[in-house]
Amino acid sequence: MQASDFTKVPPLASRETGQQQSGLSKLNTGTLCDPEGDCFVRVRKRDLERLCTEVMQLREFLPKVINGDFLDALNKARSLEKFREQSQQEHQQLKQECLHLYSRLDAAQSECQREKEEKLVLRERLWESREQLQQQAEFCTGLGASTCTVLWSASRREEAVRDILADGKLEPFLSVAGQTLESFVKSLDEEEKPQQQNYNSHEHQFVLALAGVITNLAAVTCGRDFISSSAHVLLDTIMQLLGLMKSGVFPKLKVLMLMALYNVSLSINGLTYISESPALLPLICTLLEDRDIEVCLQALRLLQSLLVEGDILAQISPDLQHTIPVERIRQLSSSRHSALKQAAQELLEDIKCFTKTGHTTTEKEQ
Predict the structure, then answer these.
(1) Which is nearest to 274 in space by CA: 230, 315, 311, 306?
(2) What is the distance between the terminal CA atoms of the chain, rounded to a whole angstrom?
(3) What angle do CA 169, 174, 179 make, to 5 degrees?
(4) Would you say 264 and 270 are in contact if contact means Cβ atoms under 8 Å apart?
(5) Which DSSP letter does residue 246 get?
(6) How remote is the C-alpha of 121 from its chain's centroid?
(7) Alpha helix ranges (H) inside 155-169
């Protein structure tokens, strides 16, 4: 075998560095080495040519061997690998967010527990405040009932009424009294049976005493004149409340308010003012149907007081004759209650006189 049949092939590292051949030295074994220690091997030229041919053939036929499905699978594998990496990143991000949410949840639960404890404390304080407020309300109601009861008794004396008027505090007192009566009447349970109502409670006694004071003030001339001229709101409130209260509900309060209107009607100014109310006569007609005898009696007296000054009433209400419930008054004139029977009979006589006076006036005008 001749030396020309062999080709010197450098190692891969030497070929990548440009196949530097300077400084090579021969070894006694027939192997060539450079000063850095990289060695060469001898390969037959035919083998090298065969290897190059095979490499070229592989380069030519390899794309044909590897079909499209394999390439698609390879691309899918690469895509899946990329998707896996993205999924891992997203998973890591979601894990961090989950940990953050857990942290916020713990903080929110702690805050919620703290608020629950504060709420329990506030609820206990609220109950304590309600109890204290209820106690104070009961105390104030009891004090008001006692005070107004004393004032009710004192106002029976004419000198006491004059002293009250001289003090100059009667107008605000009547304003507060009217508001109190209105609040009480509107709070009454209209469906509650009369026998189930506790008329002995401090609240009932308080309101009853207020109405009694108003009645006693109107029973004195100076008090009556003051109410007739300066307490129109109170008079309107009383008439309104009498219309709101159902039959059989708190008759004592109805009686006192009717007595107050009766006392006011004894004054010309008072009679003129209450007669101008279009709701007065329908109110009296309704009260005459009340189940309580004393309420009917006071309604009769109020109507009788209106008929005494027939001229004023005729000017205000020309159709008065058709408005008066004569049939109901006749029924009451047959009542077993002597005072109610007598008042109804007297009222029937007054109605006859009023009717005759009306006919005479009409004939003179003709």
Answers:
(1) 306
(2) 173
(3) 130
(4) yes
(5) P
(6) 23
(7) 158-167
Element (H, E) at 71: helix 68-154
List the pLDDT tens digit at each of the 366 positions of the chain.
445 555 555 554 444 444 444 443 443 444 566 666 667 778 888 988 999 998 898 888 777 766 767 777 888 899 999 999 999 999 999 999 999 999 999 999 999 999 999 999 999 999 999 999 999 988 988 898 899 999 999 999 999 999 989 988 899 999 999 999 999 888 875 545 544 456 678 888 999 999 999 999 999 999 999 999 999 999 999 999 999 998 888 899 999 999 999 999 999 899 989 988 888 888 999 999 999 999 999 999 999 888 877 666 555 555 566 678 888 889 988 889 999 999 999 888 888 877 766 544 444 444
How many residues are given for the chain?
Answer: 366
CA proximity to 263, closest of 213, 310, 313: 213
Q: 308 with 350: CB under 8 angstroms?
A: yes
Coarse DSSP helix, strand, coil percentages of the chain, rounded to the nearest 5 percent:
75, 5, 20
Q: Is the dihedral of CA 93, 94, 98, 100 positive or negative?
A: positive
Pairing of strands 41-44, 6-9: antiparallel
The β-bridge partners of 26 are 32
pTM score of the predicted model? 0.65
Q: Which residues of 200-230 are buried (b: 16+ CB within 10 A; e: fewer)?
A: eebbbbbbbbbbbbbbbbbbbeebbbbbbee
Chain-centroid distance, C-alpha 349? 57
247-251, Cβ contacts within 8 angstroms, sequence gap of 24 or more: 247/289, 247/290, 247/291, 247/292, 248/194, 248/290, 248/291, 248/292, 249/188, 249/190, 249/192, 249/194, 249/197, 250/188, 250/194, 250/197, 250/199, 250/204, 251/194, 251/290, 251/292, 251/294, 251/295
What distance in Å separates the CA atoms of residue 309 and residue 357, rounded to the nearest whole number? 12
CA–CA separation, 10 and 34 (whole Å): 10
Distance CA 98, CA 94 (A): 6
